[in-house]
């Protein structure tokens, strides 16, 4: 018996090595081997505030652990999401940040590799695990940094949330904790967002948002959820500044400067888009754009917007700049145009009022004069 076992193990091992070299299609054969090799996982989870520590173990013998490289494949997916996360780990645990998710499905399998060749020796079946957190009553949390020092966060309260909850938020940045300065409330007086200003952001240091849902009725501590943001990735830039238009021969050249930013202001970080009336939006990396026209167009407006692209992944475009109008031969700023329009309107209005008043005034004066004359007569 003692000498039979090693032989059979060897046979099985060599079979497995061959098999994995080719493919894993031999599913039925694999099962037998798994049984014979007695790989069995156990999964459990412990909650630590908003983090869940998912742990697992197996019944590999000490000898096997010493002899082979042991790796684990972890696949997990939060409830109501579509993206699976897959990781190959050597540790027997994984910290999962729940954020605003109400749980996840996970599965783990163990793989043994030969130490020298790194060939797969054997692997276990998947062991599945479901973690269900207490109900989360908020969703669609999003935060944005704008105008250098302003910070907005908004969220929705789910319809199934109890009537007595209220939501509080604070954030930690560079080691300090700040409470929300001004809550945005919905019609039912629930906090659904927060506006903060005069914040000095360290672009590369995380902002850790803490959202706490408290039940006002029973005065419990409430449940806290956390989400971390890298400031630069949620910055909405102001529109480009100092936009000017010049006419060169038969082309228009638009110039601009990047807006101020909390992060890197290197030229190559910015991506611009130029929009000229009735034309396709174009992407531009330079601080100017030359637009040739063949037929002089009557009038068109140019606008520019910007975001960070190369240095940092940021999806948020700035607003479009105020349109700069391009006429045949000269350019007129819309501000000037509307200002002059307003001025003339005000002027006209004033004139009318003045005329009216004056007319009535004259009337009053004449009647007064008549009265005076009448009085003098007496
Ligand atoms: C590992 O677990 C499986 C399933 O529970 C069991 O059949 C096998 O005997 C165990 N092996 C060892 C070495 O404990
Ligand atoms: C939670 O995690 C913190 C930090 O890692 C640790 O100090 C604490 O002991 C953990 N608590 C529990 C209950 O595991
Ligand atoms: C989210 O997932 C959970 C668990 O899979 C399910 O019970 C629930 O109905 C889902 N909710 C929505 C809104 O899809
Ligand atoms: C909020 O999130 C839910 C589910 O996550 C989604 O179905 C819905 O469209 C989102 N609403 C908004 C306004 O983004
Ligand atoms: C942007 O910030 C500047 C300086 O902090 C302030 O004067 C200006 O009003 C802000 N603009 C907006 C639209 O909030
Ligand atoms: C931030 O919130 C304020 C007040 O709710 C709103 O006026 C402003 O448009 C928001 N800014 C951004 C960039 O979302
Ligand atoms: C998050 O905020 C809640 C409510 O203010 C607080 O009780 C909790 O300790 C905060 N969490 C952290 C990690 O600071
Ligand atoms: C407070 O009420 C909520 C639901 O209304 C319940 O889930 C929670 O356990 C209660 N907490 C305490 C400390 O009683
Ligand atoms: C923008 O224009 C103003 C006024 O013409 C000037 O003072 C400022 O230096 C310009 N800014 C940049 C970045 O060129
Ligand atoms: C205008 O066009 C002429 C000839 O096509 C060229 O020589 C000249 O350099 C151009 N001027 C500018 C400012 O581009
Ligand atoms: C312009 O850049 C954006 C952002 O990178 C990209 O999604 C879009 O496809 C680009 N458009 C063109 C016409 O290249």
In a nutshell, what does this entry contain?
With 378 residues, the protein is of the alpha+beta class. The chain is built from four helices and 25 strands. The longest helix has 44 residues.
Topology diagram in text:
Elements: H1 4-22, H2 27-37, E1 41-48, E2 51-58, H3 62-67, E3 68-78, E4 85-89, E5 93-97, E6 103-114, E7 120-123, E8 127-132, E9 138-146, E10 150-157, E11 165-173, E12 176-179, E13 182-185, E14 191-196, E15 207-215, E16 223-229, E17 235-236, E18 241-248, E19 251-257, E20 270-276, E21 282-284, E22 288-292, E23 299-308, E24 324-327, E25 331-333, H4 334-377
Parallel strand pairs: 9-17
Antiparallel strand pairs: 1-2, 2-5, 3-4, 3-6, 6-7, 6-8, 9-10, 10-14, 11-12, 11-15, 13-14, 15-16, 18-19, 19-22, 20-21, 20-23, 23-24, 24-25
This protein binds 2-acetamido-2-deoxy-beta-D-glucopyranose (11 copies).
Residues 168, 170, 210, 212, 221, 224 line the site of one 2-acetamido-2-deoxy-beta-D-glucopyranose.
Textual characterization of the structure:
The protein has helices spanning 4-22, 27-37, 62-67, 334-377, and strands spanning 41-48, 51-58, 68-78, 85-89, 93-97, 103-114, 120-123, 127-132, 138-146, 150-157, 165-173, 176-179, 182-185, 191-196, 207-215, 223-229, 235-236, 241-248, 251-257, 270-276, 282-284, 288-292, 299-308, 324-327, 331-333. Strands 3, 4, 6, 7 and 8 form a 5-stranded antiparallel beta sheet that branches. A 5-stranded mixed beta sheet has the order 13-14-10-9-17, with no helix packed on it. A hairpin with a 6-residue loop joins strand 3 and strand 4. Mean pLDDT is 81; it is low at 1-36 and 329-334. The longest helix is centred in the last third of the chain and has 44 residues, at 334-377. The protein has 4 domains: 30-132, Immunoglobulins (Immunoglobulin-like), CATH 2.60.40.10; 138-234, Immunoglobulins (Immunoglobulin-like); 237-327, Immunoglobulin-like, CATH 2.60.40; 334-366. The N and C termini lie far apart (148 Å). By secondary structure, the chain is an alpha+beta fold. The protein is built from 4 helices and 25 strands. The structure holds 2-acetamido-2-deoxy-beta-D-glucopyranose (11 copies). Residues 79-80 line the site of one 2-acetamido-2-deoxy-beta-D-glucopyranose. This is Interleukin-5 receptor subunit alpha-like. GO terms for molecular function: cytokine receptor activity. It is a single-pass type I membrane protein. Residues 140-232 form the Type I cytokine receptor cytokine-binding domain. It holds the Pfam family IL6Ra-bind.
